[in-house]
Specification:
Elements: H1 7-45, H2 52-85, H3 100-105, H4 113-116
Helix pairs in contact: 1-2
Bound molecules: zinc ion.
Zinc finger (dksA C4-type): 91-115
Domain Zinc finger DksA/TraR C4-type: 86-118
Pfam family, one: zf-dskA_traR
């Protein structure tokens, strides 16, 4: 069994995750637009619409989701840079190789499981 992930495989994995994150981000943006449009309509209909608080809540939720996806994208880009610089797959805390299984499950992992749990 290989001691390290093939950089080609890692890059492919990371690009796949990147596409997923971008697709989710686009979906969240579309949902937010729909919520904003709905909130404008409901304000026009009735300023005391009880749905107003639901819309505010949905917007907060969508903002949080967008934030999460941006964080994820940043992590993916950082991981891709680590692949380029050759530091990918090395635990940033104990400097030992991160097990291949962990990298396959969590391609953006910066630490081994032991260090992540600390
Ligand atoms: Zn470690």
């Amino acid at each position: 069994m290989a001691q390290a992930l093939d950089p080609t495989e890692v890059t492919a994995l990371l690009h796949e995750r990147r596409r997923e994150a971008l697709a989710r981000l686009a979906g969240t943006d579309a949902e937010r637009d729909a919520v904003v449009a709905a909130s404008r309509e409901s304000v026009a209909d009735d300023e005391h619409d009880p749905e107003g608080s639901t819309i505010a809540y949905e917007r907060r939720l969508l903002d949080a989701l967008t934030h999460d996806q941006r964080d994820r994208l940043r992590e993916i880009d950082e991981a891709l840079r680590r692949v380029e610089s050759g530091t990918y797959g090395t635990c940033t805390r104990c400097h030992r190789p991160i097990p291949v299984d962990r990298l396959r499950a969590v391609p953006t992992a910066r630490t081994c499981v032991g260090c992540a749990g600390r």
